[in-house]
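Ticket #4471: structure export looks truncated?
Reporter: QA, pipeline team
Priority: medium

Steps to reproduce: submit the single chain below to the structure queue and open the exported record.
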Amino acid sequence: MPLSIPREEYMLPGHTACAGCGAALSMRYVLKGMGPKSALAIPACCWSIIPGEFPYTALKIPMLQTPFAAAAAAISGLREGLDAQGKEDYNVLAFAGDGGTADIGLQGLSAAMERGHNVLYVMYDNEAYMNTGIQRSGSTPFGAWTTTTPVGLKRNYKRENKKFVADLMIAQNVPYVATATIAYPEDLSRKVAVAKSIKGPKFIQILSPCPPGWFFNSADTVKISRLAVESKVFPLYESKNGKFALYKPAKTASISDYLSLQGRFGHLREEEVRLIEEAVEKRWSSLLEKEQN
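Actual output as written to the record:
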């Protein structure tokens, strides 16, 4: 039976990721799918540190480090430069966190997608600015503790709902948009392969749990990623040329199961958990409706 995940490794030992880092696993699977003929741009984020100190790198493909807001602009330039050299068979991708995608880099991402460059933009979503101290981002979910939404006497947890960048990309008519998690590596590998086969802009948002930022045991990264899907907190879906498909998990889990493993939600009261449950169900219903239309 053929392997659904490529055997080759393009991420080497010696990186500096934390134990249980979801972003490290995300990179590993994405590079397996993209292959050796790839060029990568990384903005300021955890992954600007993880490869190691210059001039060393834990990656086997060329890597360009960019300013915080410039990942999408950088891959636009890489794509044009490679095409000018007749190297159209090279894959060009960005690998950026949610801070550099949902917030600081959103204008560059939207512009690159609008111009139609043949690139893949991967957002590894650890739901905060983890590299600089666990600050709130637009992708941080409602109710979460961060260092800029502290929970003390005033209970200043994040009050706004999570920004789903994948939804924004679908609204912009990007040819291929998907969400994924490292708990379902075959699904992630397939989605990378689909993105690779499509000429034009592509976007994949990968939930990437962060043990120190989410306050959970580093052995539970895959478990939490799976619970995020089974509880419908992080739905898996894809949109290919406007055709939307939503994954329905065979096993379901309660939102409390998902939240209870993470210290960042440890302060929530029953009424606040109910608000999260209502928001999750409302979003799930809207995704089901999108699939049926």
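Status: closed, not a bug. The export was complete when the record was re-opened. Leaving a note from the reviewer for reference: Residues 22-292 form a domain with the Rossmann fold fold (CATH 3.40.50.970).
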